[in-house]
Amino acid sequence: MTQLKTFKFIFVTIVLVVLFGFGAMYTNVTIYTIVDIEPEQIIEENDHYYLLFDDRKLKLSENARNHLELDKFPTYKLTYSYNKLLDKKGKVLRLEVYGKQIP
Fold this sequence. Notes:
This protein is α+β, with helices and mostly antiparallel strands. Helix content is 29%, strand content 41%.
């Protein structure tokens, strides 16, 4: 009888873990957009940079932050991701100047 209870517990645990994994996987969203960035949208908190965009606080790498030239190029192609289940946080995946001519 104890083996049956143990088997049921393990089975239910595995099913819950699998369902949670699929749920987390399918609630990630990736957005590709073109955006004009203002200097006020870049903030620094606890030695991390964030881009405030679309009511979200997107984590910005220091390398991406250093390559921003907002005075010359205000328009950027932005790719970011976030999880619909979590709060208004996300991560900038790619940020590049929109319309910049490469010599």
